[in-house]
Design a protein that fits this description.
Largest sheet: 7 strands, mixed
Number of helices: 18
Strand order of the largest sheet: 7-8-6-9-10-5-11
Distance between the termini: 82 Å
Radius of gyration: 29 Å
Strand content: 15-25%
Shape: elongated
């Protein structure tokens, strides 16, 4: 086969499969196969869908490319961007306006540049406008596109010399008539046209930055510019005209989150974790990577920044139940009246499984609770749980002991009792701690929140995972706070014995629980 025939075959196959085209003509940009999430975004950017059926993760694309049918409704039912039709073909449902949120560094810009080049090569770009946070950044992306058209030998061999007469930093026109312009945020868009043609495709890529979302005035300025200048720039009579906005969560009040809540937009939001707890792009960020980053942000008191940067979520810090300011550390604890131990078992080897958690705490003579130890492990075997439970029980000479007693956990109580005879180490009666799963959040908050808020819980040392799960409550894992609430429930009957004899027990120790939990108690 001649080089010309080979090039023609690549052009034909590339037209039907943009992912194949990217891997063939831009292999230096895409050295490895595209993850399923990039395939879906590429389909949206190029408005092609049939090629997705060739790839093994099609069902994952269908499952997770969703949008809220009524975004203003918290529990809105989800619609699917991609779906199978009755005749077996794949269809794609997107509106004139599409907003896509993803974590920073997940190759959004590379996909945008590739899609623009694809449309240029197949003469479907007409007039496209690229907008980013600054004019300099926008021009950098245009320069990347120009460089491929000027120097990519395979691209030139297959599609010819596309370098046209207008070849500026902010505007290029190819020999086949495709026009690509760029501006920065706040730049002139209204009335922008080339030879009487308005832009048919406007792409906003990370158009906001930390500075532009730092004040109300800046937020309003960006919003006004978008709705008064950018959005009206599309020709209303052209049904194929489109705006695509891609970016990262920077603020609850930023432009992109506001578009995600607009029913006129097809809104897609991805975090580094999918709704089922698995990683969005494991090669970029594995579960271990995500956990490591989260712990790092938590240690610095920046957990909310982690949620925005990697999970595409802006949390309301006013509703945080266990802020870092509640935590108190005391390396010289008061002698405890008694110590207790509790275990919240979990058996699963999956990385997304719950932690097995063991908490050891003591009631001090001043009535405060000292947390001595917090042990946690995902995928712990029954043997590991039992050995650690006995080790900590001996170490702290615990007088009260409990086990969460639901489902298979009830069997653990019998195993612990049998182990007493094997180890010849005898505990008092083990208390089964029962509760209904759907009441866990209220139960833990009722036990822990008033005590933390009033300074009645102290840590003997740093418990990073416990502190992270408390600060994160109730969004992430809940196992360590649950174990802590369990062990405190074992100590509660001895609170009166530990009370200060000078203290009037008739006085309220805590603020009213309905005030702390911001709810009416009935």
């Amino acid at each position: 086969m001649s080089d010309l025939a080979a090039s023609e075959d690549l052009v034909v196959e590339g037209y039907s499969d943009p992912a194949f085209w990217c891997r063939t003509f831009l292999s230096h940009w895409f050295p490895t196969p595209m993850p399923w999430v990039h395939l879906g975004i590429l389909a949206i950017l190029t408005r092609r869908v049939d090629f997705l059926s060739k790839y093994p993760d099609l069902e994952k694309i269908i499952e997770f490319f969703t949008y809220k049918i009524n975004p203003k409704q918290k529990d809105s039912p989800l619609g699917h961007i991609f779906s199978h039709q009755e005749d077996g073909r794949l269809s794609m449902e997107v509106s004139r306006n599409t907003a896509i949120m993803m974590p920073r560094g997940f190759s959004k810009t590379t996909l945008v540049n590739a899609a623009i080049l694809f449309l240029i090569c197949y003469e479907e770009a007409e007039f496209s406008l690229y907008i980013s946070e600054t004019k300099t950044h926008s021009e950098t992306q245009i320069r990347n596109i120009k460089n491929e058209l000027e120097t990519n030998e395979l691209l030139i061999a297959a599609f010819g010399n596309l370098v046209g007469g207008t070849w500026r930093n902010d505007l290029i026109k190819t020999t086949t008539g495709s026009t690509i312009g760029c501006v920065g945020r706040g730049g002139q868009v209204r009335g922008k046209n080339e030879e009487g043609q308005r832009p048919l495709r406007i792409i906003l890529d990370d158009v906001e930055d930390e500075e532009s979302v730092s004040t109300t005035d800046q937020l309003l300025k960006t919003s006004d510019w978008f709705f008064k200048s950018v959005k009206p720039a599309l020709p209303r009579m052209r049904k194929d005209a489109q705006i695509i906005v891609l970016g990262t969560m920077l603020s609850r009040e930023a432009l992109l989150p506001s578009l995600l809540n607009d029913p006129d937009w097809t809104s897609i939001s991805f975090g580094a974790l999918l709704p089922d707890g698995s990683p969005l792009w494991p090669e970029m960020m594995s579960l271990e990577d995500i956990a490591r980053e989260k712990s790092s942000y938590s240690r610095l008191g920046k957990l909310n920044a982690f949620y925005m940067e990697y999970l595409s979520t802006a949390r309301n810090t006013d509703e945080q139940k266990f802020p870092n300011r509640f935590f108190r550390w005391n390396s010289v604890p008061v002698t405890p009246i008694l110590n207790a131990i509790a275990i919240d078992p979990a058996i699963s080897e999956k990385q997304t499984a719950d932690y097995c958690a063991i908490a050891v705490a003591g009631m001090q003579k001043n009535g405060k609770i000292m947390v001595h130890e917090m042990w946690a492990k995902v995928g712990a075997t029954p043997r590991e749980m039992i050995d650690e439970y006995f080790r900590l029980h001996k170490l702290y000479n615990c007088q009260r002991q409990g086990v969460e007693s639901i489902a298979f956990q009830a069997a653990l109580i019998h195993l612990l009792r049998e182990e007493m005879f094997r180890k010849r180490y005898y505990m008092q009666e083990i208390t089964p701690i029962t509760h209904k799963r759907n009441n866990k959040i209220l139960r833990v908050e009722s036990i822990l929140h008033p005590r933390f808020a009033n300074g009645y819980i102290e840590f003997s040392k740093k418990f990073e995972l416990l502190e992270e799960q408390l600060e994160d409550w109730p969004n992430g894992k809940k196992d360590l706070p649950d174990a802590l609430a369990m062990v405190i429930s074992l100590l509660d009957p001895f609170a009166a014995v530990a009370a200060d004899p000078e203290k009037d027990l008739g006085e309220d120790e805590y603020e009213p629980i309905e005030k702390l939990l911001k709810m009416e108690m009935r």
